[in-house]
């Protein structure tokens, strides 16, 4: 029976896992061991709608303290400076795969040449607006949002919340891992203590101290689909720049550059392939594009996952179990999924885990990570914006893997939703047909079965687009929304 859990690692993964366990299983002993010598990566971080649901629906986290300490700003989606269009938006609302009133085909069939204002959230992002404005002048909040964080502030919030739940937090460093036939037999700490548990959650980041270094679980590389392996990271203090309600993903010579928005800072990073550009040249290209950047540092990474996330009495959550580059900001969402799945599993089995449940968890782990790899591969295989050696390699060599059936179907039929729920997309794919279609239509990937709209259809389509534009122009900016929620007498009513 699992009576005590030790979580190794005090970053976002460690605290989110501990919070999920303690929220759903209050009687469970949960201890986080974190080493302040290791510290936090400390970059700007984006997230997804799934992560927001984990925070506010699964953990029931309220808004007041969350916004005071974590200080997030809202994210409605992503802006891609990608492919042949000037740019396009990927929002968290239904988009190209949905029907608009009065039209016989889904929106994607009307977007091949001009995607501008095709849906409300994209119109808001185009004009740097976050929320529609209610008649009384307050923001019309909704649930199709995520956040941008400064990682250190977010982890500070998580630490406080975890402590309030009753999680024990120990500042110490593991110097030795003891093993037996069941897996981990104990952790020897620098303080001289030896701590033991029934289950160990490895949130030790890229080091994967328990799963990889100790239990020697094999690693599955994604290098046939994802060629980037480094990022040069920097940023600057915000002056008069608008706080944009989206993450920017901009094509660069040997990869792409993110821009993550914070209230008082702008975070930028160039994700690149060391096989096509040196660190020195990547730094120079990054600074040429972003002359305001102050100090920088290079982060090295490998995209892939371990064959299993749960081995014996160890389960890995976060970078210790798998990692892909931050092109769709999946990291926090993955942590939320694994944390809630572990807590729900322990509840379901009354904390007596059986082999069949571990096996099912590991099958889910493989499919979930592979589906993210598949989706990111679509971004690289069809980005024709630059014809540099790196992008030529991506166009010719990117392995679409599990995305192949979706792409093949799209190339023949366009953004048809006939098979939306019948096996074209893996059920573990968090992006679904919707996400793939946004990227395929956004990058203007050609398809055979084109729809030729009537004049009446075009009139209806353009009327709807103009309504989206007009609504966006009346909407509130991020700065205006922050001012409202900080005003005296404001009370949160979460959707």
Briefly say what this structure is.
Helices cover 35% and strands 20% of the residues. It is of the alpha+beta class and 495 residues long.
Note the main attributes of this structure.
single chain, 495 residues, alpha+beta, FAD/NAD(P)-binding domain, seven-stranded mixed sheet, six-stranded mixed sheet
Structure description:
There is one protein chain. By secondary structure, the chain is of the alpha+beta class. Among the domains are: 4-73 and 147-220 and 309-368, 3-Layer(bba) Sandwich (FAD/NAD(P)-binding domain), CATH 3.50.50.60; 94-136 and 454-485, no CATH class. Helix content is 35%, strand content 20%. It is built from 14 helices and 22 strands. It has helices spanning 12-24, 49-58, 63-69, 120-126, 151-165, 209-214, 279-289, 331-348, 355-381, 389-397, 404-413, 432-442, 455-474, 478-485; strands spanning 4-8, 29-34, 44-46, 73-75, 77-81, 88-91, 146-150, 168-171, 174-180, 183-189, 194-195, 199-202, 219-221, 230-237, 247-252, 255-261, 265-272, 297-300, 304-306, 310-311, 314-316, 322-323. The strands form 5 sheets. Strands 6-5-15-16-17-14-18 form a 7-stranded mixed beta sheet, sandwiched between helices. A 6-stranded mixed beta sheet has the order 8-2-1-12-21-20. Helix 1 runs parallel beside helix 5 (151-165) and helix 1 runs parallel beside helix 8. The model has no long low-confidence stretch (mean pLDDT 94).
């Amino acid at each position: 029976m699992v009576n005590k859990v030790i979580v190794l690692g005090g970053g976002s993964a460690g605290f989110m896992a501990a919070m999920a366990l303690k929220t759903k299983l209050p009687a469970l002993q949960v201890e986080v061991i974190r080493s302040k010598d290791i510290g936090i990566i400390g970059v700007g971080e984006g997230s997804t709608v799934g992560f927001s649901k984990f925070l506010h629906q699964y953990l029931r986290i309220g808004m007041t303290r969350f916004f005071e300490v974590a200080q997030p700003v809202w994210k409605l989606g992503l802006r891609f400076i990608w492919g042949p269009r000037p740019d396009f938006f990927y929002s968290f609302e239904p988009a190209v795969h949905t029907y608009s009133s009065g039209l016989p085909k889904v929106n994607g069939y009307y977007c091949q040449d001009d995607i501008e204002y095709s849906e409300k959230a994209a119109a808001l992002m185009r004009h740097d607006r976050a929320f529609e404005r209610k008649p009384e002048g307050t923001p019309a909040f909704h649930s199709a949002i995520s956040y941008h964080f400064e990682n250190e502030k977010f982890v500070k919030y998580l630490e406080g919340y975890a402590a309030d739940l009753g999680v024990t937090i120990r500042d110490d460093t593991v110097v030795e891992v003891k093993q037996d036939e069941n897996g981990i037999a104990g952790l020897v700490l620098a303080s001289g203590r030896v701590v033991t548990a029934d289950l160990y959650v490895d949130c030790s980041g890229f080091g994967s101290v328990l799963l990889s270094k100790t239990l020697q679980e094999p690693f599955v590389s994604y290098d046939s689909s994802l060629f980037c392996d480094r990022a040069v990271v920097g940023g600057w203090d915000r002056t008069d720049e608008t706080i944009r309600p989206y993450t920017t993903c901009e094509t660069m010579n040997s990869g792409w550059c993110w821009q993550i928005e914070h209230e008082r800072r702008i975070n930028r990073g160039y994700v690149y392939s060391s096989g096509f550009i040196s660190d020195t040249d990547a730094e120079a290209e990054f600074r040429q594009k972003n002359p305001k950047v102050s100090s920088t540092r290079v982060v090295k990474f490998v995209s892939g996952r371990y064959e299993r996330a749960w081995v014996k009495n160890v389960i890995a959550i976060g970078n210790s179990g798998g990692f892909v580059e931050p092109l769709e900001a999946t990291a926090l969402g993955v942590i939320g999924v694994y944390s809630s799945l572990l807590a729900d599993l322990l509840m379901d089995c009354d904390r007596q885990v059986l082999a069949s449940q571990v096996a099912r968890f590991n099958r889910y782990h493989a499919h979930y990570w592979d589906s993210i790899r598949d989706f990111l591969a679509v971004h690289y295989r069809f980005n024709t914006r630059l014809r540099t050696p790196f992008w030529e390699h991506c166009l010719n060599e990117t392995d679409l893997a599990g995305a192949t059936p979706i792409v093949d179907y799209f190339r023949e039929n366009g953004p048809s939703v006939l098979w939306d729920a019948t096996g074209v997309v893996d059920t573990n794919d968090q992006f679904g047909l919707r996400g793939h279609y946004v990227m395929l239509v956004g990058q203007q990937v050609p398809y055979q079965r084109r729809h030729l709209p009537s004049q009446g259809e075009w009139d209806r389509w353009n009327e709807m687009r103009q309504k989206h534009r007009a609504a966006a122009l009346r909407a509130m900016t991020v700065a205006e929304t922050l001012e409202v929620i900080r005003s005296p007498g404001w009370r949160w009513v979460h959707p």
